[in-house]
Write a structure and sequence with these properties.
alpha/beta, Rossmann fold, 8 helices
Length: 211
């Protein structure tokens, strides 16, 4: 029997990666078999696509559809090579970003059209859907301040204009209303521990993990 598939979504510095790592650790401590991947990434091919999209000068003038197709290609490979087979072997699969990122970043913020991007994702992943998605909601100013505090160099997407990032927030919030049974919005402005407890409450309500 396949395990539970959970994804984390949100704008840069929303805390999703930290929260998924905390959830992974909690599951492991409880003796629950868990695997975690990130997007784009998770395989050698996908990590190369990640480097190109986020850190290579060649991607600075990338066309929106080229960007979309590369993200989608990385997802298709991750699903084929890792996600689907691994989900048959574990109790819980966690992925840091998934299909909602493409719907928001490329479909909405880039203006390619949500329905077109959704269709592309459906075709390339075979309709492989998460059971639960956490959207960690923070405002634009908080995201910017956290990035400054991190002291890390911003990647290509993080360097996009302010209006792009504001469109992402609006897009994600619209998805919460669009997919209410799957997406749960968590206030990412809380402390790390408070957010973690919020995540655990939802997981325990939805699944028989007793964390």
């Amino acid at each position: 029997m396949a395990g539970v598939f959970i994804t984390g979504e949100g704008i840069d510095c929303c805390g999703k990666s930290t929260q998924l790592e905390l959830l992974e650790n909690k599951l492991q401590d409880a003796g629950i078999k868990v695997a975690m991947f990130r997007e784009p990434g998770g395989t050698s091919m996908c990590e190369e696509i990640r480097k190109l999209l986020l850190h290579k000068d060649e991607a600075e003038n990338i066309a929106p559809w080229t960007e979309c197709l590369l993200y989608t290609a990385a997802r298709a490979q991750l699903v084929h090579e890792k996600a689907v087979p691994v989900l048959e072997q574990v109790d819980c699969l966690l992925i840091d970003r998934y299909r909602d990122s493409t719907e928001v970043y490329q479909g909405i913020a880039r203006g390619l059209g949500a329905e077109e991007v959704i269709l592309l994702t459906e075709i390339t992943t075979g309709g492989f859907m998460p059971d639960l998605t956490f959207y960690f909601d923070i405002d634009f100013k908080t995201s910017r301040q956290r990035k400054i505090n991190s002291g890390t160099k911003p990647d290509r997407l993080e360097r996009q204009p302010d209006e792009f990032h504001k469109a992402l927030i609006k897009g994600y919030r619209s998805l919460v209303k669009k997919y209410p049974e799957r997406i749960v919005m968590i206030d990412g402005n809380q402390s790390i521990e408070d957010v973690h407890q919020s995540v655990l409450r939802v997981v325990n309500e939805r699944f028989d993990f007793n964390l």
